[in-house]
Amino acid sequence: MLRPNHTIVTNTEDLNLASNSSDVMLCAFALADCVVHVDSQIAKYLRAVHRTALELAIPNLFGLEIGGYWLTSAQINQLRKLPDCYPSNEFGLASRAVEAYLLAQTERLGSFPGTPNGWAECEY
User: Fold this and answer.
1) pLDDT tens, residue by residue, 29-56
2) What is the distance between the alpha carbons of residues 111 and 107, in angstroms, rounded to a whole number?
3) CB contact at 8 A, 118 and 109
4) Of the candidates 122, 115, 121, 119, which has an alpha carbon nearest to the alpha carbon of residue 21?
């Protein structure tokens, strides 16, 4: 039985995700507890990065069944502006902390365009 607004894909070419991977874009990811591997200079910025990510995240973006706190491209761009709030001598360290945090959060997504490959160990 079909429900309204649902489509059945009958073209098997559309199902070949490997050949269409260049057409796949990351639209959002759920925040998870992750181990972020950085040196001690950068580590002091991670708490601010994580708290800012939580404030920017959209709760239950895809409904209560999926749940979670989600960052979209817009929130990622906002998070990348966080280093602007630091003095110029700390900008580079804060920027590296943001990128390390995003890398740890997205490593588990695998090989989608715009995301790194591999898995991150998760815990804070």
Assistant:
1) 888 888 898 999 999 999 999 999 999 9
2) 9
3) no
4) 115
